[in-house]
Amino acid sequence: MARRPLPRILSNGSAQLARSRELARTAADSATDVLHPLITITRGLRRLASAGRRRWVDTPKERRGALLFAVAAVLLAVALAPYGPLLAVVALMAAAAWHGRDRAPAAPAGPAPGQLQRLKSLYEALVPYFSASDDPEPLYARGGDWGKVFSEYEFDGDGRLAHLVISYPAYFTDAEPDSRARIEHLLGAKCGRGREYHFAWDEEANQLTVRVLAPLSTDIAAQPFVTAPGETVLGFTDPTRVQRTLPLTHGAHGEERTDVPPVVWRTGVRSTEPHLLAVGQPGSGTSTLLRSIALQALHHGDVVIVDGGGTGEYACLTGRDGVLAVECALSGAVTSLEWAAAETERRLAAASKAHQAGDPPPEDTRRPLWLLLDRPSVFTHLAAADDGTDPQSLLQAPLRHGRAANVTVVVAEQFDGLDALTAPVRQHTRARVVLGPATAGQLESVLGAPPHTTPVEQMPPGRGYARLGTGPVHRLQVPATPDPYDDATSEAHRQAVLDLLPPRTTPADEEPGPVPEAVRLDKAATEKVAAAALAAETEMSEPAAPPAPEGAAVAESSS
Ligand SMILES: Nc1ncnc2c1ncn2[C@@H]1O[C@H](COP(=O)(O)OP(=O)(O)OP(=O)(O)O)[C@@H](O)[C@H]1O
Question: Superkingdom, according to UniProt (predicted)?
Answer without folding.
Answer: Bacteria
